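4.2 Preliminary Data

To establish feasibility before requesting continued support, the project team ran the inverse folding procedure on a target of 232 residues. The structure was first converted into the token representation described in Section 3, and no sequence information of any kind was made available to the design step. The complete token record follows.
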């Protein structure tokens, strides 16, 4: 079925309400990305049905690619790109992020974004629906695979934006350091001030210098819109 892409005026997104729908973390990730006027190449890993590329298209005219391993979810993204007449700006690739070097030369991309599977392959209860399981657990790719792949295609000083679970922040930080990334900005997301963090957003720089800014927490409980939420 086709839905409004939240309150992004005029944008529509195709999704399967029984199997796969975009979530708030993808909206927040897209809003967290800092874009300037210079021409940049942007690649969204684990793009799903392409909510991040679609939202970014409202903020920049730069070229955006999305990589999604699951054929049916990729097809939903393709339909959304076509419906919104964004084929000249957004290109979707049906493949594993591990193979990103097949499509992009080394050190040629300015920005990589990623809303990855949050859970380790053998942690918790894995959904019996294989499509949902792949989206939620590291069955086809691991956190380290994602960061290693980003390091390969990003330019020197290129930017990696990710959203993840706070309980994996130590592992995320250690893995980024191993591939010569430095976290430069971090935001914790809470439903209310009384609740523990639901998600963490990070901006990391390939071969960057030390110096981390931890922004004030983002409280999402009563928000009516998320547009420009990090620009206020």
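Position-by-position output of the design step:
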């Amino acid at each position: 079925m086709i839905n409004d892409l939240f309150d992004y005026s005029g944008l529509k997104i195709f999704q399967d309400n029984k199997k796969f729908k975009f979530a708030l973390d993808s909206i927040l990730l897209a809003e967290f990305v800092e874009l300037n006027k210079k021409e940049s190449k942007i690649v969204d890993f684990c793009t799903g049905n392409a909510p991040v590329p679609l939202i970014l298209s409202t903020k920049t005219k730069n070229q955006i690619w999305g990589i999604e391993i699951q054929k049916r979810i990729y097809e939903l993204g393709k339909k959304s790109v076509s419906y919104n007449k964004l084929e000249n700006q957004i290109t979707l690739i049906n493949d594993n992020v591990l193979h990103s070097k097949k499509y992009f030369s080394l050190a040629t991309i300015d920005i990589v974004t990623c809303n990855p599977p949050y859970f380790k392959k053998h942690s918790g209860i894995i959904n019996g629906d294989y499509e949902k399981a792949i989206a939620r657990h590291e069955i086809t790719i691991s956190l380290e695979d994602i960061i290693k792949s980003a390091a390969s295609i990003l330019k020197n000083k290129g930017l990696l934006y990710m959203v993840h679970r706070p309980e994996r922040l130590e592992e995320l930080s250690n893995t980024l350091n191993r591939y010569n990334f430095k976290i430069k900005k971090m935001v914790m997301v809470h439903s209310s001030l009384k609740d523990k963090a639901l998600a963490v957003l990070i901006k990391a720089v390939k071969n960057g210098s030390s110096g981390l800014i931890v922004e004030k927490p983002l409280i999402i409980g009563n928000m009516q819109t998320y547009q420009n939420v990090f620009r206020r």
